[in-house]
Amino acid sequence: MNVCMAPVPVVFDLDGTLIDSAPDIHAAVNATLRAAGYAPLSFDMIKGFIGQGVAHTWTQIAHARAIPSDRIEDLLAGFMTRYHSATALTRIYPGVLEALGALADAGHPLGICTNKPMGPTRAVLDHFGIAGLFAVVIAADSLPERKPDPAPLRKAMADLGADPRKPQGIYVGDSEVDAQTAMALDVPFLLYTRGYRKAAVEALPHHAAFDDFAALPALIEQLRD
Ligand SMILES: O=C(O)COP(=O)(O)O
Ligand SMILES: [Mg+2]
């Protein structure tokens, strides 16, 4: 790792990028459905509903289980109670800790920009002992706008010291929503391919794709050249 390269803000998506949280989300969804008398949903189906925030996830669930719209609010509240501290089934992807450590050691300011609500975001960052690595955390409820609107990523970059008139930073994510968000802000996007993306890698605009976090520090160094 070239420790002389200029620092650049590096912002990460969370679900499907740094952490594999779908098993906890799946368990919390199904516990909520069962408690309300609905049949559970498959893991793959729930995984496909992650990426645009919990309201969107529950709109999809309601559609799949023909849940009347006037029941969704209650179900969502029950889900949030379970989701708030759901970390038992969540894993950090291999190599994430080492990559974050290398980037932090090189002086890059690090942030999070996620469509996950702040409660479970903080809980999972604390659970894995990585909250202190991130100078900025922008979650789904931090601003009125959510990804793919570029406002949350713009704020994360600006809070990490990027010039808001000309964002200079890198976004690392796993999904269609992340690719659109980075494109809307005109910042380089690095795509982690083991997350919850639905489309083919080639279908998503990205500067580089990687399936192993050991490759990330070098990819970021190349983008600085
Ligand atoms: O929880 C979601 O729906 C998405 O979360 P992410 O933005 O961290 O992928
Ligand atoms: Mg994601």
From TrEMBL:
Residues annotated for Mg(2+) binding in this entry: 13, 15, 174
Q: What is this protein called?
A: Phosphoglycolate phosphatase
E.C. number, please?
A: 3.1.3.18
- Keyword Membrane on entry: no
Q: Which family is annotated?
A: Belongs to the HAD-like hydrolase superfamily. CbbY/CbbZ/Gph/YieH family.
Which residues are responsible for catalysis?
A: 13
GO terms of molecular function: phosphoglycolate phosphatase activity
Function of the protein: Specifically catalyzes the dephosphorylation of 2-phosphoglycolate. Is involved in the dissimilation of the intracellular 2-phosphoglycolate formed during the DNA repair of 3'-phosphoglycolate ends, a major class of DNA lesions induced by oxidative stress.
Q: Which Pfam families match?
A: HAD_2
HAMAP family to which the protein is assigned, alphabetical: GPH_hydrolase_bact
| Cofactor dependency | Mg(2+)
Q: Which UniProt keywords apply?
A: Carbohydrate metabolism, Hydrolase, Magnesium, Metal-binding
Instruction: Fetch the InterPro entries from UniProt.
Output: HAD-like_hydrolase_sf, HAD-like_sf, HAD-SF_hydro_IA, HAD_2, HAD_sf, PGP-like_dom2, PGPase_prok
> Which source organism does the UniProt entry give?
Paracoccus pacificus
Q: In which pathway does it act?
A: Organic acid metabolism; glycolate biosynthesis; glycolate from 2-phosphoglycolate: step 1/1
The record's top EC class is: hydrolase
Gene3D superfamilies with a match to the protein in the record: HAD superfamily/HAD-like, Putative phosphatase, domain 2
Q: Which reaction does it catalyse?
A: 2-phosphoglycolate + H2O = glycolate + phosphate
